[in-house]
Fold this protein.
Amino acid sequence: MERKPAEPLEILAPAGGEEQLTAAVRSGADAVYLGLIAFSARRNAANFDADALRRAVSYCHARDVRVHVALNTLVLDAELDAFADAVRAVAAAGADAAIVQDVGAAALVRRICPSLPLHASTQMAVHNAAGAAALERMGFSRVVLARELTVEEIAAVAAATPLEVEVFIHGALCMSMSGCCTLSCMLGGRSGNRGLCAQPCRLDFRRGARGYALSLKDLCGLAHLDALRAAGVRSLKIEGRMKRPEYVAAAVAACMAARAGEVPDLFALRAVFSRSGFTDGYLTGRRTLDMFGVRTQEDAAAAAPVLGSIRRLYRAERPRVGVDLRLDGAAVPPRLLAGDGVHIVSAAAPDAPAAPGAPQELLARARRSMEKLGGTPFFLRTLEFAGDAPPLGASSLNAMRREALDALLALRGRVAPLIVTDGGPLPLAPHAGPDAPALRLRFARAEQICAADRAELLILPVRQVTPALIAQYGPKLAAELPRALYPGDEERLFERLRALCGAGLAAVQAENLYGLTLAGRLGLRAHGGFGLNAANAEALAAYAALGAADMTLSFELPQRAALRMGGALPRGVIAYGRLPLMYFRACPLQGGDGCGGCRGAGELTDRRGTSFPVRCEARRYSVLYNSVPLYLGGERLDGLDFATLYFTLETPDVCAAVAGAFLHGRPLDGPRTRGPFRGGLL
């Protein structure tokens, strides 16, 4: 594996709008990330249209700051042409990278602008080397790792991939694994995967007497900066595109200080925004109740006294670009050359009366004027004189310096568009699916298995699969891989799968990118699960290229989007199930002694008294399930290749009853939901 030479840690700051952009750059950020009006995971930020993006890139590039553009939402088929236009706008602005979640969107970026670097959003939920390997195959150059990893786990992934590694260093923490949360969508129709998370997790979900059981404190990982550098991290990302400019400035300043080996101003950082303090629980692996917190009135009141002093951090330009000046007094008229090592500009002395003086006096006057770089992004690297200092007054010298530096800044900020092809969305034919979908059954436990003779596929968690079950059900049985796989478990899972292959296992259900990689290495048929967030025909084609035999579509998709999706890859939907709304590594069920005495099962109650079951998965992560099951019995599903009944907490009798009802198109008794299937997706 070829690795790039180590580079200095990049400080990557959020820019939700132009004020935040200025604050980030003037506070010392090496790079900023921002979103367009559309296809940004923070659609409620101010964001940037095409013209504002060009101005932003020009401003940043003139000051040696890189610009990463977030195109990190799931994209629907009907939006692919608009997404292609957005990619062209990013290329026209000369941006430095695109941050992408949707694999179909990534394929479009590569097709339209092959030279635009692709960064894999944390929404892709990459926790391990096998996931990074899938990204490498798709042409990504950087992975933003999942926030749940420890420093040691980050190091393990970084050591196993040639991709640049980016991690979050400060800011809000999602309770769920990123990209795996559908709570906002299922409860209110506003999808976080579409940039409109309503943050219901910050409401009062209770675990017994303990409130706000889904609200984590903000991350502050500055104490681990040296360890992250040693782990192979390239970029430190600050969360916060919805935050005020003062927050951005304080966070960048703190990161700058920590990187320089100085003590960061944690008082100002906490005052400007925190939720009962900070946590580094994911980085250390101490995922205790101390990670949880809410924003109190005291937290909010603490901000006002520090805002003024923080604003001073970005009131003026930061000198960050070295400039070489050469004053030629022998030229007629005298000329000033200004260069940055790449560009050179010149300015002639204005037509003004001479200001004679002794040679030493003229030299001192010229030096004083040339050294006045305050209010510009330049610092003086070298100053040379060709011949004697010219007999110019201070005003003439200052005017010449300003003209040269303005010209150099404009030249540095000149937009350099990236080359685009005439490519666009694939001209895919409508999908020719069957009149009625085949039945697939997913069970959480082997004892639930029913209606096996009516199903084309039986899906069972890999830890439940045994040689006896493989012998009984043959190629009809698929082993479901965990939604998250941490580096310490990667080799163990691979060896278990290899052993099951020896017993005749033929297929897996992959709920994460890593599963496609492992399936390919073992020669297993890979069925793509809803965890892969397939939302468009481009994504289906991309997953097929990675080895997927078929795909369960995201259950956030409305009916019309699912039924009209083009392309050849067989696809299906979840037609029944208590859908997983969140996946946790910081478990809300834990007591004061962590997992001690926990049965791995419990529930959370929202402010209306509705109960949501939580189940622990082999002490690796836990899952929050919806309070009521989805049921699409009787819905129009023609054109889909399969429909999956997704059983989790049900008894064997209930599983059999649901399967029978669905096969005969009968309604179910009791509360149920159709999720976003009938409606639109925001």
User: Anything to note?
Assistant: The mean pLDDT is 95. The longest helix spans residues 394-412. Residues 321-412 form one domain.
